[in-house]
Amino acid sequence: MRARDVADARYAEPLTVDDLAAAACLSRAHFSREFRRAFGESPYSYLLTRRLERAATLLRGTDYTVADICMSVGLSSVGSFTTSFTRAYGVSPTQYRAAFPSAASLARIPLCVLKAYGRPVNSTIGEDAR
């Protein structure tokens, strides 16, 4: 459980199976066996799944580039990120993002602010007649 908590909390860091095994105070081989037995997947697979889930959230809710999202979730190769994401979600990160409204359209701006900033700065209506 300690290793899973570390993977959940520090997914964006360059964690390895050795780091997770150290958090569980077990040898790498014993840790990998016990983790698979307890959670049904390898420690690396679990960590990659957490990273891909976070990437999907960022793709839905931000306008960050795919490369920025890849790096922010702790992965270092955009190509392998795209391959892993496509394998997990069935579509590429770009296609996944296209299925959701842009982050800018989700921003809620009060009408009074829109009106104030929508007015022309130098209005000359009616002033030219003087």
Number of domains: 1
Rounded to the nearest angstrom, the radius of gyration is 23 Å
Shape from CA axes? elongated
Class per helix and strand makeup: mainly alpha
Summed up, the helix count is: 9
Q: How many strand segments?
A: 0
Largest sheet: none
The averaged pLDDT comes out at: 86
Give unreliable regions as ranges.
none
State the name of the first-level CATH class.
Mainly Alpha
Strand residue percentage: under 5%
What gap, in angstroms, lies between the N and C termini? Answer: 79 Å
The appropriate CATH architecture is: Orthogonal Bundle
Q: Any idea of the CATH topology? A: Arc Repressor Mutant, subunit A
Order of helices and strands: HHHHHHHHH
> What's the CATH H-level superfamily name?
Homeodomain-like
Instruction: Report helical residue fraction.
Output: 55-70%
Structure description:
This protein is mainly alpha-helical. It has one domain (2-118): Orthogonal Bundle (Arc Repressor Mutant, subunit A). The protein has nine helices and no strands. The protein has helices at 2-9, 17-24, 28-39, 43-61, 66-72, 78-89, 93-98, 103-106, 111-118. Helix 1 crosses helix 2 and helix 2 (17-24) crosses helix 3 (28-39). It is elongated. The model has no long low-confidence stretch (mean pLDDT 86).
